[in-house]
Every structure is written in C-alpha cells, then in structure tokens.
C-alpha cells in the first residue's frame, strides 16, 4: 500500500527546470510530503516538463502513457501532476488527452503544487493553473543539487523572442531577482559548504535591466567577494548583450570561471536576422576577440540550429565556416523544430527533413573533430579540478571538472567536493584523463 504523502519527480529540459525541481521538492517537503526514488512507491507523480522542441514533448507523452499503464495495473489512486513549460503551453488540453493528469501547474505555479494536490484530494476536481499573476521566486531558501555545487536562479523568463523559440511564451518576460537576495542566497550556500555556484537565466547578461538593479558585471563582482565560494559560473549568455564590461569583470574576478556558453545559432547573417537574434557573425567574432584579449585561456561552448526555415546550402556552409574559425570546445546541435506561437513558422520555405538531418550529421562530425583538437590542447597542463563524483565503472577513478568546465577522469582517493591539482596527460577517445599532483583543498 503506497502512502498518500509520497511523491516521485522526474525532470526534463534545461538547468532552469532542474533548478525548479529542487524548489518543488522543498515546497512539497515543507508541506509534509516525502520524496521516493521509485515511481512504483509513489502516490503522486510529478513531471516537470519542457516544450522547446517537439521531441521534448513526445518524451513526456511517452511517460504519461507509461503512467497510464501503471494506473491500470494496481496503482489506480496515483495522482499525476504536470508542471513546467509544457504544462504552461498545453494547460487544460493535457487533461483531455490524458485524464489521468489531475493537476496542471504552469511555470508561475510550480511552488503551489502541495496546495493543488491537497485541493484535488479533497474536492476530486482537476486543478489547472496557467495564468501568470503569481510569478514568484522560491522563498524556500536554498538547497544544493549536490553537496558542493548549486544553481542560483538570477533572472526568470525571456523577452528576446528569437523567432524559433517558445520560451518567452511559456516562461514570460524577464524578471530579475533582487541582487541582495542573490548575494544572501550565495552566502547561505557557501556557509553550507558549497564551493561552486552556477547562476541561471535564459539570458543572464540582461540581468538587472528590467528592475533597474545592478548590472550583471557588478553582480559578478559582488559574488566574487563571498569568502567560501571558489568557482562562479553562469548560463546562458546572449551575444547581443555580452559586452566588454562583462568580459572585463570576468577577467578581473578570480572566482569567475573562464568558460562561456555563448549560443551562436547560425553563421549566416541572413539567418541570424530571420532568427531575430540581434547580432551579426562579425559581432559574435568581435566578442570572441575580446574574450581572447581579456581572458586569454578560456573555453567556449555554443548552441547551433540547422534547418531553420529558408536555410540554404550557402547559409549552412557559413555556419560550418564559423565553427571552424571559432573552434568551439563543444556544441549542442539541434535540428529546427516547428513549435506553436513562434514567428519562424510564418516562413514558407521549410527545409526538408532529410536535408536538415544531413546538415546535422555534417555539423556533429565537424564539431567532434574540433572538440578533439581543443581537448588535445589541454594535454600537459597542470590545473585545478573539482571532484564531482566517483566513477560508477571504476571506484578508484573519479570525474573531475576543470575551471574551463572540461570533464576529466582522474585516479584519486580524494572525495567529491574536493579540489585537487591534476596534470592532464591523456586523451582516450574523447575522454581527458589526468593524474593527481596534490590535494589542493578539502571541503
Ligand atoms: N536561453 C538560451 C537557451 C534557450 S533553449 C539561449 O538563448 O540560448 C536552448 C537551445 O534550444 C537554444 O539555444 C536553441 O539552440 C535551441 N532551440 C530553441 N528553440 C528551438 C527550436 N524551435 N528548434 C530547434 N532548436 C531550438
Ligand atoms: Fe529563446 Fe532566444 Fe530567449 Fe534564448 S534568448 S530563451 S533562444 S528567445
Ligand atoms: Fe525547455 Fe522550458 Fe527550459 S521549454 S529548455 S524547460 S525554459
């Protein structure tokens, strides 16, 4: 017999969603619910969803099908809760497609799940909330994803409306969290032993503009002064807002890691314009030039879309050329996915699926080769590594991450959360390996 207070949560989508899930767990625990690790032991199933590409939605539909089968085979009282971006997009429609879904909580309602579940239990009325008037930051304090690392959400939503992107429609406009709250949270995390924080937002570089708070550069400088913190990272930057002031601040703050995730999306100005990205390839290259000027040794990762409507072979070649010129350490590569609401859908000249698929394969092959060459440049370097976890395959090995966010396998008996000095000395396949030089710091 499954206890009515138990819940199981699964999360799809970006870091923002993963960070939201931590707050959802906190809100449920604060109301007396208990998280379980197996869906078969749970009375409440929470799916924190993504809808950025069609595939993300299809995965959730697949899971709903699976939960339907569990419900039909003994777990008939199970309550399914849909939260996150797909919940926001589909609202009531989901409950029609999947009557098993009893609670739909849009992106402004994630923290109200305990209340909605209790209301459903009492009234047996489906609870669907997708309006935006309760847009709020978590007041449940901070919780760590891991013992030593944590996300800190600094800005919600997005006001950019890139023509392919559904995020502004489901997450609403930009809303910056007050800087004093961010600094307090970061201090609280550091007091709890967190050594690495990652600031989160769809466009962190726009921080403070909507509220008139301090700029992103000044925020980095404030956070850099927090004693216990060792590494500060941030996701995601936008080329149109990533200015010299921010780059100078990264260079001058010793805790801010030299790793930038800067989505380029395309190497063709015509496509960038149609995407409403607000920059040209030249601007992007200038930003990279400034990174070299002020930071020197840094890593850069990106997002790229192929098969955007009207993309020609010439446009695509420009993307490949840009990738060769910039030499990204890594890239998340996507095939354009048709989505509701987005302006790109008004463009009539769609790229056939096979063409887009072929471009994606070419892109992945090229990027793999570049990533390999970039990793080769790390060989022979002695750097600081933060141990993330012990290897599942070999308990004598651990996975460490460098300042430049490179994953490195290292033989060590030092524990996760510790910094060790490592010498990167081998590249086997795509995996960097290192040996420990000395333990630099125990947490
Ligand atoms: N805020 C971040 C990330 C947004 S979503 C940014 O501005 O970069 C993550 C990535 O998904 C995007 O960078 C983009 O490359 C990709 N993406 C978004 N919408 C898409 C769509 N309709 N089809 C394919 N890829 C998409
Ligand atoms: Fe989407 Fe563009 Fe906003 Fe990123 S900046 S979330 S790609 S609209
Ligand atoms: Fe997906 Fe929403 Fe993130 S649509 S990518 S979970 S903001």
Describe what you observe in this structure:
- This protein is α/β, with parallel strands linked by helices and 443 residues long.
- The chain has three domains: 6-129, Rossmann fold, CATH 3.40.50; 141-376, tm_1862 like domain (pyruvate-formate lyase- activating enzyme, Alpha-Beta Horseshoe); 382-441, OB fold (Dihydrolipoamide Acetyltransferase, E2P), CATH 2.40.50.140.
- It contains 13 helices and 19 strands.
- The longest helix is centred in the last third of the chain and has 24 residues, at 353-376.
- It starts with 5 loop residues before the first strand and ends with a strand.
- The model has no long low-confidence stretch (mean pLDDT 94).
- S-adenosyl-L-homocysteine binds next to strand 13.
- S-adenosyl-L-homocysteine (SAH) binds at residues 52-53, 164-165, 167, 202-203, 236, 238, 263, 265, 303, 305, 334, 336-337, 339.
The appropriate CATH architecture of the largest domain is Alpha-Beta Horseshoe
CATH superfamily of the largest domain: tm_1862 like domain
Radius of gyration: 23 Å
User: Strand share of the residues?
Assistant: 15-25%
Mean pLDDT: 94
Strand order of the largest sheet: 2-1-3-4-5-6
Helix content: 25-40%
Main sheet characteristics: 6 strands, parallel
According to CATH, the fold-level topology of the largest domain is: pyruvate-formate lyase- activating enzyme
In this entry the ligands are:
S-adenosyl-L-homocysteine, iron/sulfur cluster, FE3-S4 cluster
- Please, what is the oligomeric state? single chain
CATH class of the largest domain: Alpha Beta
Shape field: globular
End-to-end Cα distance: 42 Å
Structural class of the secondary structure composition? Answer: alpha/beta
Supply the number of helical segments. 13
């Amino acid at each position: 017999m499954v206890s009515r207070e138990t819940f199981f949560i699964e999360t799809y989508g970006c870091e923002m969603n993963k960070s939201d899930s931590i707050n959802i767990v906190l809100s449920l625990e604060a109301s007396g619910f208990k998280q379980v690790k197996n869906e078969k032991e749970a009375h409440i199933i929470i799916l924190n969803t993504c809808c950025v590409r069609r595939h993300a939605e299809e995965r959730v539909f697949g899971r709903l099908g699976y939960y339907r089968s569990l419900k039909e085979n003994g777990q008939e009282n199970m309550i399914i809760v849909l939260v996150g971006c797909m919940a926001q997009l589909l609202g009531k429609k989901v409950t029609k497609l999947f009557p098993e879904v009893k609670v739909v909580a849009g992106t402004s309602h994630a923290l109200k799940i305990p209340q909605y579940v209790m209301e459903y239990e009492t009234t047996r009325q489906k609870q669907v909330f997708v309006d935006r008037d309760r847009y709020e930051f978590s007041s449940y304090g901070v919780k760590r994803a891991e013992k030593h690392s944590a996300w800190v959400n600094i800005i919600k939503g997005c006001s950019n409306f890139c023509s392919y992107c559904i995020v502004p429609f489901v997450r609403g406009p930009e809303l910056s969290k007050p800087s004093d709250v961010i600094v307090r949270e970061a201090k609280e995390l550091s007091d709890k032993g967190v050594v690495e924080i990652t600031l989160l937002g769809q466009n962190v570089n726009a921080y403070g503009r909507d509220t008139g708070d301090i700029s992103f550069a000044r925020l980095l400088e404030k956070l850099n002064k927090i004693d216990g913190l060792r590494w500060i990272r941030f996701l995601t930057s936008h080329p149109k807002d990533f200015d010299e002031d921010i780059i100078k601040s990264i260079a001058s703050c010793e805790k801010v890691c030299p790793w930038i995730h800067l989505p380029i999306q395309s190497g063709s100005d015509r496509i960038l314009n149609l995407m409403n990205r607000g920059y040209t390839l030249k601007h992007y290259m200038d930003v990279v030039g400034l990174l070299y000027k002020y930071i020197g040794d840094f890593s850069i990762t990106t997002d790229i879309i192929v098969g955007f409507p009207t993309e020609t072979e010439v446009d695509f070649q420009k993307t490949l050329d840009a990738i060769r010129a910039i030499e990204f350490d890594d890239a998340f590569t996507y095939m354009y996915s048709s989505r509701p609401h987005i302006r790109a859908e008004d463009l009539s000249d769609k790229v056939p699926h096979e063409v887009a698929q072929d471009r994606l394969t070419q892109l992945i092959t090229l990027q793999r080769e570049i990533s390999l060459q970039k990793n080769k440049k790390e060989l022979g370097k002695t750097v600081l590594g933060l141990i993330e976890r012990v290897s599942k395959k070999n308990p004598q090995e651990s996975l460490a991450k460098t300042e430049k966010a490179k994953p490195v396998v290292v033989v060590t008996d030092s524990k996760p959360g510790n910094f060790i000095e490592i010498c990167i000395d081998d590249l086997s396949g795509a995996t960097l390996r290192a040996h420990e030089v000395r333990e630099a710091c125990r947490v």
